[in-house]
Structures are given as structure tokens and as C-alpha cells.
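Observation: inputs received (chain + nicotinamide-adenine-dinucleotide).
Thought: call the complex predictor directly.
Action: predict_structure
Action Input:
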Amino acid sequence: MLTQDPFPLPFAADERIVVCGGGGFIGGHLLADLRRRGYTKLRAVDIKPLKHWYQEFPDVQNVVADLQEKAACERALEDAAVVYSLAADMGGMGFIENNKALCMLTVLINTHLLAAARDAGVQRFFFSSSACVYNAEKQLDPNVTALKEADAYPAMPEDGYGWEKLFSERMCRHFTEDFGLITRVARYHNVYGPHGTFRGGREKAPAAICRKVIDAKLSGNHEIEIWGDGLQTRSFQYIDDCVFGTQAILYSDITEPINLGSSELVSINGLVDIVEDIAGVKLRRNYNLGAPKGVNGRNSDNTMIRERLGWEPSISLRDGLEKTYRWIYDEIQKAAV
Ligand code: NAD
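Observation:
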């Protein structure tokens, strides 16, 4: 049975660990946790200028580089023992439905990183896949049957973003089979929390709804726009569970892609109810039926992760949203002064 603390340290504290996409939401939290666990040789790589990284640590080697380039991947993985491949051109439904080519170009990052990891003799390689790999036909009904790992095939993933993830999953598998590189793949279901995107077009539903509720509360205009009819269902995983599960999967003997997500199903209307409650407001809901809304229903079947790790994400949506809401609220207040 795994517990979040203490956590076994399967690698020496001074092994080189590289977090690709370290300036992003999950990468930033992962680096914070690795530092907390005592790892001392951390490298973070991201294409964004440092000032746009969500979290930046002075004792981490921070590298700004475009990992779509082969040479940059080779430099990034010099002396690396462990690699987390989190870098991707991605966002919420509004972004991935309108930027399919950009999403698919992330295949360059994962391809070059895998080849560089093989050549550098990396000990373990983690790839962040997504629930968007699952067959769309299994996600037509808001009263979902939770998705189990086998439901990715026959393949009919989310166009663009999902196809790239599925292809890169298979690249991991074949790099293991053909070259002996040890790879681990988690299929993340929606992750949310502080220190992530909450405006600009790449934000996902929990952050977007927190921001809209805060804007409505602060402006006194008590209305909210909701994408779709609000009946679509999802599960949302708090970042701390994601960071823990990511490391647990990396260190495990699980060689096939595995779900990493919460199984607490909620409709988008239900999500708005919780955020309204946290904010202490009630808003008039305007449904934008033309906006991107993704599949009708999606949940994570956690049978495999429970069986293999004796653990599954368990932080409640209410608790996670409280922290996320407070952080976004403070950011909006800071930007206003
Ligand atoms: P994020 O956008 O905050 O982080 C990704 C980072 O990758 C960004 O900082 C971005 O600048 C960087 N990046 C993009 N292109 C790059 C390039 N060419 N070279 C170097 N860096 C580049 O996203 P996140 O939420 O932290 O997601 C991390 C990973 O998890 C991604 O692979 C994503 O697809 C996957 N994932 C996330 C979720 C979620 O809900 N957040 C769900 C499923 C899968």
C-alpha cells in the first residue's frame, strides 16, 4: 500500500532528473515535490521565457529550449538518469479543438526525447499521455461507464491531440521492445490546481470556471457563460495526486499505459455549483451551445491502478477547488493593483 509520505527514493538523491515542460503547470509542481524529497540534481527545460514559468526554483538548472529540435533534446538529456516528458503544445478543449496541427507537432518532442534518452542511457523515461486517447464512441453518454485502459482500442481518439498521445504511447512501447529503454506511461485525466493556466485560451474547465465566478463576483455582474449545456460529465484530479501518482508509476513495474485520474464524476453544472458555493455567490447561467465542449462524458476506471499500486487519487473535488479558487482569486487581485 502506497502512502504519500514518506516516499521511497529509488534513485540516488544526486542522480540527474530532467523535467521536460518544467515551466508548465504539472512540471512546476513535480519539480517542487522532487526538491522536497531531497533530489539535488534537477534540470527543468521549457520553451517559454523564464518569466512565464509557473514556478521557478533557484537551485534547479533551468534551461530555455525548443524540444521540437533534436539537438535541444540531446543537450537537455546530457547525463540524465530519469526523464519526465511533460512538454506539449496543449490546452483545454477551446485550444485542442482549434489547433490540431500544433497539437500533433508535439510528436517531434516525444520522438526526439525518446531517441535522445536511448542514446544517453537514461534509466527511466516517463511519458504523460492523456484520457484523450480513448475511443470517442465510448464517451457519448454523460452517464458514463468509466474508461478502462483497454478502451483505447480500436483507436478513435480525440482528433489531433489524442492521436499524438496515442502514437507517442506506442513509440514508448517500441523503444522498450526494440532498444530496452524503460518507459512508463500514465494517461492523465483532467488535472487542476494552483500555479496553472486560468486565462488566455489554454485554460481547462476548473480554472476557467473559478476565474469566471471570481470575475462575476468582483464586477457585480452576476452572470456566467458555460460552454455546452452543462450536462457533460468529467472527473478532475487535484495536482498533488497527479504528482504523487506520476512518481509512483515511474518507479513501478507497470509497463503498459495506465489511468491516472480521479473517479469522482461531476457534471459541469455540478462543478459550477461547487465553485459558486466556495465563492458565496449564485450566478445566472448562460449556456453557449456552439462552444467547444468535448465528449459528453468521461471518467477514470481505477481498477488497474488500485490493483497495481494499492493507491488511487483521492483528494476531493471540493477540497482541491477551494485551494485552486483561492490561488486564482489572489492572482486576479494582484494583477488588479
Ligand atoms: P502546460 O501547458 O502547463 O505545460 C506544458 C509545458 O510544455 C509548457 O510550459 C510549454 O511551454 C512546454 N512546451 C511546449 N512546447 C515546448 C517545446 N517545443 N519545447 C519545450 N517546452 C515546450 O501543461 P500541463 O497541464 O502541465 O501538462 C503537462 C503534460 O501533461 C502535457 O504533456 C499534457 O499533454 C499532459 N496532460 C495534462 C493534462 C491536464 O489536465 N493538465 C491532462 C492530460 C494530459
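Thought: report the result.
Final Answer: The two ends are 47 Å apart (CA to CA). The pocket of nicotinamide-adenine-dinucleotide is lined by residues 21, 23-27, 46-48, 66-68, 86-90, 109, 128, 130, 188, 190-191, 204 (CB under 6 Å).
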